[in-house]
Structure formats: structure tokens, C-alpha cells
Specification:
6 helices; 4-stranded antiparallel sheet; alpha+beta
Length: about 170
């Protein structure tokens, strides 16, 4: 990625209008930073696909299968002990440990995937060094788009954002 263009707006109406117009001319909207939730903005941004559910499912099922397999191996193959005429593979008695450990590993996998997908802990972000960016959590609305590679396209994008009502535009390098 070549960089970002940060367009700062004074109100939410201009931000949503600029996002709608930028998407209409095929600029890649990356994110928006606002002091409060803005209605209609999340539909304009391109959603990121999450793999948390899949990781939790695979981790939970794999752990439950492993736990059941260990119990089966120890009770049926390694140390078969017939107590009271019960079958060696008493699967209802074996379900508690696979269920509990499966849930535990599913939660751990989900948390690890969440950290990986969000890039947390993010101790340094180039956006935090941009002068005035902290006002996005107070009284400003910031829209970030992908910076075009060509100088002419970059200048056209900056002019477009100014026409959309941006009070200031800053460039952030890669």
C-alpha cells in the first residue's frame, strides 16, 4: 500500500456525503474515525472478513476430538478395566471432558484470531503521529482513503476531497 489520505470534516453530514461520493468514483475507503457512531457510515465502508468463527469451530472440534480420543484410548485400548459389566467405551461418561476442553480451546482460538486480525497490541500506529488526529475522538470526523500511486491521481484525489468539504487533508506515508 502506498499510503493514506486523511480528510478531516467538521460535521457528520459532510463526512457521510464525502464517503458516498468517494465510493461512487471508486476511491478505496479504508476507515472513518468519529467521536460517536454515525448512521449510514458503516454501510459505505468495505467490511473486513473475519475468520474468528471458523477458528473457534476448528479449535473447539479438534480439542473435543482429541480429548475424546485420549479418553477412549486410555479406557478401551491401553488399560481396559471392566468394572461392573459396563462397556469399555462408555461414551456418555466421556462427554464431559471433551465438551469443557473444546469450549476452552474454542475461546482461546477465537481470542488469538481476534488479536491476529486486528493487529493488536498495536503499540505504534502512524496515524497517532498525525497532528490533530486526536480530535477525531472529540469533535472532528476523519475519513481515510487509499492514496493513489501516481502524482496526478493523488492531486485529483486531494482536490476531490476538498470539493467534498474537507477542512484539511493530510498524507500519511506507508
Amino acid at each position: 500500500m502506498s499510503g493514506l489520505l486523511l480528510a478531516e470534516f467538521r460535521d457528520q453530514r459532510r463526512l457521510v456525503d464525502a464517503a458516498r461520493r468517494a465510493r461512487g468514483v471508486h476511491y478505496r475507503l479504508l476507515d472513518a474515525y468519529t467521536p460517536f457512531p454515525v448512521e449510514g457510515l458503516s454501510e459505505l465502508l468495505e467490511p473486513r472478513r473475519s475468520h474468528i468463527r471458523l477458528a473457534m469451530f476448528i479449535g473447539g472440534v479438534a480439542m473435543a476430538a482429541l480429548a475424546y480420543g485420549l479418553q477412549y484410548y486410555s479406557a478401551v485400548i491401553n488399560y481396559p478395566y471392566n468394572s461392573g459389566g459396563r462397556p469399555l467405551n462408555a461414551w456418555p461418561a466421556f462427554m464431559l471432558v471433551p465438551f469443557a476442553t473444546g469450549i476452552l480451546l474454542a475461546a482461546v482460538c477465537g481470542f488469538a484470531t481476534f488479536l491476529f486480525e486486528t493487529g493488536l497490541p498495536k503499540l505504534r500506529d502512524p496515524l497517532f503521529a498525525v497532528e490533530g488526529f486526536e480530535r477525531a475522538s472529540q469533535d472532528r470526523f476523519v475519513l481515510t482513503i487509499e492514496q493513489p500511486d501516481e502524482e496526478d491521481d493523488r492531486q485529483r484525489a486531494i482536490d476531490f476531497l476538498k470539493r467534498c468539504g474537507a477542512s484539511s487533508i493530510k498524507e500519511v506515508g506507508p
